[in-house]
Write a structure and sequence with these properties.
Radius of gyration: 23 Å
Order of helices and strands: EHEEHEHEEEHEHEHEEHHEHEEE
Mean pLDDT: 87
Number of helices: 9
Largest sheet: 8 strands, mixed
CATH architecture of the largest domain: 3-Layer(aba) Sandwich
Number of domains: 2
Length: 292
Amino acid sequence: MPWLQVRLAITPEQAQTYEDALLEVGAVSVTFMDAEDQPIFEPDLGTTPLWSHTHLLALFEADTDANAVFAHLQLLTGADLPEHHAEVIADQDWERSWMDGFEPMRFGQRLWIVPSWHAAPEPDAVNLLLDPGLAFGTGTHPTTALCLEWLDGQALQDCSVIDFGCGSGILAIAALLLGAPHAVGTDIDIQAIEASRDNAQRNGIDPARFPLYLPEAMPQQPADVVVANILAGPLVALAPQITRLVKPGGRLALSGILAEQADEVRAAYADAFALDPTAEKDGWVRISGSRH
C-alpha cells in the first residue's frame, strides 16, 4: 500500500523533540538522513551523532491528512515548524530493492564476493557467499575492498589468521577460502559474532576452523596474519595489543583509516613492523607490513 511521507529539515538539537512529536501524532516509522552528504567517521562511544543539516523522514498511513499532522506538530512543539514537505510514495519491497543493488564483486585475481541470493559469475573461482545481515562488511566499502585485495595476494597456506573486528566475518572467511587452515574472529558486537558464524556456515566452513570470540574471551595466541579493519583511533590505541597478536615475521594489514590519518597510524606501528607503501582507495587507506 502507499504511504504518506513527511520530511522535516532539522538541526541535531531539534531531533529528539520532533522524533517524539511525530510518533505522538501517529508516525509508523521515523528515520534520520544526511541532508548534505556530510560524513561522520568516528563518533564517541555511547553517542548517536547527527549531521548539522538533517532530514527527519516519517511514514504515516496513506489516508493521513498532512495538514493535520503539521498542525499537531506545531501544537506539540509550541514553535513554528522548520522547512517541511509531504508526499505520497508507493510501497515497495524494501529488502528486495536493497538485494537487487548488491552484485557480485571481484577482488584481486582469485576472489569473488557473491551475495548469497546470487549466482556466482565464475563458479570455479574462490567464491565467498555473503549475507551481511546486521553486521558491517560487504566488500562495497573501500576499506573492506583494500583488505580483500591484500588477502588475495597473500600465500595463506599453513598460515593462522586473526580477523580483529570481524564484522560480517568477510575477511576471515576469505582467508580460509584462499587457503588458510585456521582463523580466529573477534568483535565487540554480538551481532557481528552471529553474522560471522552464519556466513561461515553458508560457506561450508567447519566451526573448528573459525572460532569466534568477544574481545575479553579471545585467546592471545599470536597468528601468522592479522587483519584489522576498524577505525584509526582504536588502531592507534590498541597498537600494542594488535602488535602482540602478530608472530615475529608475521604479516599485518590495517584499514578503516582515512588518508589524512595514515601518518598517525603508521607511526604507531613503525617500530615493530617493516611497513609497505600505503595503499589508497577513494580517500581511505590500507597500511600493511611484516613484523620484525
